[in-house]
Amino acid sequence: MKKTRDYWFGIAISFLLAGLLAFLGVAAVTSKGLGWGAAALAAYAVMFGGPLAILLAVTWIVYLARDRRNVPGHVHALMFVPTLLAALIVPVSESIRKSQWDSFRESHPAIAETHVNLSGRTIWLDTREASAASGASPYMEPASADNRNFSRFRRYPGPDALAKGVFPYDGARLKEAAARYVYLDQAGAPGASLPLRRLPYPDLGKLPSAYAYGEAGLLVYQYFHYADRVEVAPGIARFSLMTEQAMESARIPGLAIFGMANYTPETMARVEINGQAYDMGGDAAGSLLGHPCHLSHGGSPVLLDLDQPVRIRWQAVEEPGAWREAAMAVPAFGKAGKAGSGAGLVRVRLYFLPDGTVAAERYQEIRSRRDELAIRATGLPPSARPHVSCGAYAGYNPQTVRLLGD
Questions:
Q1: Which of the 8 DSSP states describes residue 46?
Q2: Within 13 A of 119's CA, how many CA atoms are on the CB side?
Q3: Sequence ranges of the domains in the chain
Q4: What is the reported pTM?
Q5: What SS3 class is residue 397?
Q6: Reported confidence tier of residue 99, pLDDT bands at 50, 70, 90
């Protein structure tokens, strides 16, 4: 029976190849910011490891032919296991790193922020640890009827920012110690600051039980920048389509999607519904006076009892800091409007009217078993008819979406 030394050449090649791959693998996983260096390491692996791998395979085949396939098992192991273990250094390391990163992200989730500039001057926001892909620009001009865009982005905490204590959130919540909002200067360094007034968190009710990604994904922090202060109002963020479908299945009591139609002469920048900060989305609600219809039907979630009067208050870009207030009742569906299992979330469209009052229309999307969409709506409120000629149903294609009687 042949001894191990009779296969020394193949075993030597195996250890040489394993040593090369181990060296390159360790270099890859211990170096930060390799960039093009990763391509160089891969090139070395192919350039030097490729010929060694071919030579190892040929040697193994020669041993099999010479010994009529009676090569001892431990020789097979010595010829291939070291190389296999060396080749696993990078994928195993990446798997461990990904697991650690996922655990870090779960403990330190991304935070959604919306900034509204009502200060009357240009400001430079704190966009440290923010994703450039989500539109994070620190430069922000004052809001106006012509410049209605808000700054909306997500901030992703990194280990360095957390270690330095410069990230203002602890998990999904703003830190208790956050008492001032620090602006950046044009060079990106911390500069001037203003007192930060913190408003209460919304009652999320049973929303987290229907949402699999944690509280942070349900919240949006709206920062309202005034001349002498910054107010931060946490609110329920607008649902994605998948989140909305999950909420429909959960059938959470009191959950409704509110949309807006502004027929006042001013540009609305901040809205509260029953004391809850309303997520305005990406821009202020400009005046629709003179427009026959407003066809959009999106909106933001609110938790409240629709059978009780709804209190609305809002601020306009033209007079920041001054609150307007109104109260109204959301009309109920008639007996024919009792929806079945195919009903989506209840939706409410608010009509802000020139006389300072607010009217509401309730509607709901009904999808049949054949996936056909219909709309049940209470109809355009009488007080809104002098200013707008079409209600919530106008946002749908009448050729494909039926309007059901109430």
A1: I
A2: 21
A3: 4-105, 108-237, 238-406
A4: 0.79
A5: coil
A6: confident
